[in-house]
Each structure stands twice: as structure tokens, then as C-alpha cells.
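Case study B.
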Amino acid sequence: MEEEAVGEGSDAVGRARKLLFRRMLVGIKDGRFFLGGFYCIDKQGNIILQDAVEYRTTRRSSPSPLEQRCLGLILIPASCRATCHVDCSIDEQLSLLSLT
Amino acid sequence: MSDTKFQASEAFAMASNDRTDGNATVPPPRSAIHSGDNSVWADASPLLHAACQDLKEGELIHGDNFNLYAAMSALEIMDPKMDSGIACKYYSLEEAIEDGAAPIPISVDKTTDVRCTIDIMDHLLACEATWHKGHSLAQTVYSCLYLLQTERTSSHALLHSYCKVIQETCKEVLSVVSDARTHEEEDLFTMSYGLPLGGNGDEKCLSMLNAVEETVSRQLRACKASSSKKRVSEDIEPLQNNPDLEEGYCKALLCRLRFRKHFYHLLISMRRPQGRGLELGRKHIASCIAEIDSIRKSSMFLRARAQEISGQNRSNTTASGNQPIGFDASINCRLAAPTPPRAIEILSWEKALDYFVKLLQDLDHICSYTLDPSLEAALLFVVNFQKSQPDLVSRAHLQILLVQGGKLYGREPIFSVVIRAAGLPEFTKSHVIQENEFMVQLGQLVINLLKILCTNAAWQRRKLGKMLQDWRVTYVQLELAFEKEFGETSNISDNKHISITIFQQILPWVEEQTYWIAYRFLILGFELELYSVHDYCMVYWYIYAVLTKLAEKKHIRMAMSSGTAKKKTKKKRDYLKDARTDYQIPAAVLFLQSQIYLAEGLSMMLAALRNEHKLVPPQSPFNTEREVFMQQFELLQKACLPDHVSYVTFKESTIHADFSTQVLSDHFKEAHRIAKDVKSSFAHDADMMAEIRRIEQVAEHNNIALNVISRVGALEPSLKISFTFTHHPFFATAIVKRS
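Model:
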């Protein structure tokens, strides 16, 4: 992963700030997904989502229909986060998220 | 923002293709969770990672509306206390069933199947008792996977009928408690969201249960007949395979089935309006208790069978000691609040049986009530009922019996109850005065009082305290209405004359009732252990003040209703201690008098002990004695009950108390004498006789203690004085010891 030069460090922060309140889909290690508005992130990478919905399969082992329930404001520790996706248009995807 | 669409599992399989981070352990359903039209899910991890690196320690990326305090309330995922979605054994009921957690039949071997069925029945009983004790249905009774989908059990007659009757029983109990609205502190009992509570309440479950009971009865008869070598007329298929165990298992099953049948019948009987089913209820209670006895006796046989099988997985929630099959409390945990429920312990099987026996005894107490139309009798019944510390379910049943549709026992309109209580003649109960808004308010207060008296002691005391002002305000409003309507009239018609009489008798009755509530509020403090020994002096003094007023108002009310033309007296002197009264003081008032002397005696004795430094309150920088007084009696003071009573008057009364005079001793002597004299009037009432005897004992023992203290001298250092409630629940007895 390429990192920005130190002088342009705030650029990443600025672009991350643009993601605030967008719908974010965070997957965690036990297979559950949480969809909510991106509310906050700290230096350790802990994320807070607002109006979050939890998606879970009804069978642990095999593919099966998802069930969902509303949780409200949640905190996802960095240690259990597996994936993190953001809802954006195809154009935005390139400019906002690319680091090259 | 476009709406989220949620697609079925076909899209699920395709999703793993476009992952960029190479983590293939968990296939993401990102395609199953639509991102919306013209938008995609873009991987934000690299950007966020870079941003985090550039952040300073303690710095956050957040929006303008961010509130750290609110953010602290966020549920933390993967924290077991906050995240109820954490994977337990099974993700869903379907998964559990597919994995064989609740097999039907339980076993192909009929003996094992029967044995396991009995274990399930026992564990369900333990769960039911735990639920009654104040936990949620989801964690207790509905932790049974068979109950969550009863259609599955339809091929297994025993299990199916048992599950159905459990569902109907729980629904009945839930309905009574919900109607009574006595959830009290925790509302867990009535939480039932998403649970399959049961059918339409028709008694179809009973016919199924009866059919199964009939079959098992025949099987029992058949095995007894074959064991005694008699000819069996019918061709009955045995319950299970082992002929030596047939009788034991049949008997064990029969008592369990019969208990459920009678218990369900009991609940239905008690629900019949106006107490019509009470007598029948008592018969079912007797049957239930007999069946519980048989259930207990069956444990020896069942435990012996269990020991042959396995030593592991012992459980104290079944008679056999085996773990029951088909229970998982975690399946339901997502049905409740977002956070996981507190871990609870299911009652042991033995304790569950004890619980049900107590419940049945309390319900029997209710069913034996004669539905006396007198309000005083109803209040006394509730107070006596509460002495055995009954649980939520029986208290809810009592409340439903007492107050139905705004009427006493569902049949006595509340105004006529009040009329009777105030000693007015029967014909006044249809008087138009009942439509007066304050009379209606008074009726509501009476109903609320009856309901509150059925709640647990802590809740009850809180509500009674709050009620005092309402009663006081209603009294003032009634008094004002009376004065407004009849104050200046000189020409009084017949009809108005009746109205005047009604008001004149209801007003002192309202006061009497208010003081009774105040008295109950004060003595509940003893039951709840709210007073320290250093508070006793002021508490007994206040009880003495309240009882004095109570007796005065009761006397006025009784005198008025007995027809003697007595004008409402406003004198505040010692009305009762005047020996020149020219009529018999009613026994009820005399009884109160003995309690007044007792309270006064105790208060003065404690004051004397304090004055002579035998009972020294701790010097606290937080609460002076005046502050303690204000805290203890704030609600009474606010309602001016009684008037002209304050910390100052308390101090004035007690500052000079000492052991040198005979005055202290006189209080206990009088209390004893009056109690003895009044016994003959209550010879027919067992509860009153017991109470009078207790008062005699307390008076006697305190008198003796007082004599010892006077003789030895209170300042004698070897003298140790303590207080106990062995003779009476709230009148203390002094114990004097010389070390």
C-alpha cells in the first residue's frame, strides 16, 4: 500500500472526512455485516456507525438467507473489522478512494 | 440516498469475486445488500488506514453534529454484554433444528423417548417457576425449542399436548398479570415480543391432554393387570419397551399430565367474573397439590433410571438429574432489546415444586375469600393476605378479583361501597350526588388504593405515600363543595337534607381512610427495614399521632352512623381518654386505643433512653435529627397528616421523657388492660385475636423491661438494652441484659 508523503498527510484525512455520513458497510470477522452512516473514526481505526443495521446469515456454515435487525449507534473495534466498503458512484470511486 | 434492497441468496455466491484484499474466509453478501442505483460498494480500507496513520493521538474524524457524550452510548460490537448477535451455538432456530437439537421423536427407543420427555416436562416446570419469579419468557419457558415450533411435535402426542397446554397456561398467566398491571419494578415478566404465545385460548389443548392422559391410564391398568397375571381385555400398546419399568414411567407421566390439567382448569376458574369460579378453583388446587406430591415421589424411580445411563451432564432442573434435550436460551436473545439479557439461573426442580406449592396455597387463600361487600373487610383481607409474602402471580389474581370493570368484585359499584363504608343507609347509594366530580374522584381513589395494596411492599409503600396528598386534596375539595352548596341555605328541602347527611358522613370517613393509609405507610417501613433503631422514637411518635387521629375519625364516623345525633366535633383535646363519655366506645376504636398507648409508650421509652444517653444516635455531619425527621415524614407533612405536627412538637413531647416517673409504665399497662378487655368483642375473628394477643405480649414484655431499667437505673453502665420484633412485626420489644 502506497503512503502519502508526510507533508500531504492531511489529504488522506480530508478525503476520509468526505466519507462522513455516507452509507458504510463494515464486515466483521465472525461473518456479520453492519450497514450504517459513517459517523466517526479514531486513530486506532475504531469506527462508529449511526442507524446501523446488522445483517446475519441464518446458517453459520452454509449460504442462506440473511436476516437483519436495527441497532442504532454502534462502535466496531478495529480488531474485529474485516472489511469496509462505502457507497459511492462509479466516478467517485476512482477519485475519492484511489491513492495513486 | 437510494433505498437499500435486500436480495436472496443467489447473489450471495457471486459476491466473492470482486474482493480486493484477498481475505477469502468469509464470503461477503455485498451484492445481496444492494448499494443502490448507479452506485457501487467501494473498498474504503486503504484510505481509512492512511487517514488513521496521519491522525494525531486522540484525534478523531467526525462531523459537525458529533457529540462525544452520545458516542459513548454506542453499542460495542463483540462485547458480550452489549452485542446480542455474537455467534453462540446456533444462529437461528432453523439451524438448531437442522443440527438435531430438538429431535422428533426424541429417540427411536421408546424407553429413552419417554425418559427424555419427562426430563423436558420437568425442566419446563423449572423454567416456568423461574419466569414467575420475575424473568423473561424468552429466557425461560421459551428457551424450549419444541415450544418455538409446536407444529413439529404433532406426531408425538405426549410432547405435543404438553407443549400446547404450557403455551395456553403461560398465556393465561401473562394475561392476568398484564391486566392487573402489577409488573412492578421490572417489566421483564410481560415481555413476549416475537414469541409464539399460543392459540385462541379455546380449550382444545385440554381435550388433547385428556386423550393422552386416558391412553397412559389404560397403559398403566394394562401393565398392572399383566403383572398380576390377570387377563387383559384390551390390546394396549405399552408406553415403552421395558415391562419392568412400565408402571413407574406411567405413574410419573400421569401425575405430571394431571398437574398441568388441574392447574390450567384452576386458572380458567379464577378468571371467571365476580368470583364465580372460586369454589371450583379450590377443588383444582387440592388436586394440583396432590399431583405435586406424586411428582415428588416419582423422582426416586427416575433418578435410579438415570444413573444407569450417564454420569455426565447432571442437571438439578429435572427429577432424574439428566440434562433435558431441546433447550437453548440463546436462540431467542436477539428477540428482546438490542443488548443481551442478563444471564439468569433456572430454579432447581425441587425449588420449582416448592414455588408451585406456595403459589397454590396463596391462590387457595384467595379462593377461600367470601367476597364481603364491606370495603373494610376487603382491605383487611388484602393486608392479611400480604403477610405470607405472596408472589406476583397470586397478587395479580387477587387484584383482578377485587377490582373488575371499576367495581368491587365486578359487581358492587364503587359509590355504593363508599356509602356502606361511611355507614350511610342503603337507599342513599343511588343518590345523584355520586355524579359530583369529587365523589367520582373519591371512587377512583378507592379503586387505586385496592390495586396498590396488592403490589409488593416496596412498590406499595412508595405509591401509598404519593397517594396521601391525593386523598387530602379530594377531602378539601369535597369539603369546599359541601360548604358552597349548603353553607348559606336556610331553607333545606328533603332531598338536600339527604345530601347534607351524605356529605357529613363521607367527609369524616375520607379522613379516617386517609389516616389508615398514613398508618400503613409508616408500618410498612418496619417490614422493609427502612428505619434504624435511632429512628424508632420519632417513628413511634408519628404512629401515635396518626393512630390518635385515626381513632378519633373512626369514632366520629361510627357514632354518626349509629344514629346518635352528634354534631361533628372539632375539638382537638384527648377525645378518647375522657372517661366521662356517656356511651360505649366501639371495640374497633378501643383496639386502636391499645395500639396508641403502645406506640406512645415505646416512643417515650426510646426518648428516655436517648435523654439518659443509653441510646446515642451517631453524630453524622450529614443528617441532623431534624433532617432525618423531615426525610422520613416528608410525604405526610406535605399532606398535613396530621395537622400541627412537626419536628418542634416532636421535640417538645419527648425532651423531658425519663425513667424516674411511673408515666412510662402507665402507657404499657393501659395498652395491656385495654387489649385484654377488648378480646371478648373479637372472639369470632381469629386474625384479630392473634393480633390482640401479640399486643398484650409486647405491652407486658416492655413493662417488665421498664421495671428493670427503673430499678437498676438507666445510667448503670452494665445495662445493655436492645430491641427486637419477635413478638410483633412492627411494635418492638425491649430486651434488657446485664453484662
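The beta strands of chain B are 39-43, 60-62, 75-76, 403-404, 407-408, 412-413, 719-724, 733-738. The remaining cases will be described in the next quarterly update.
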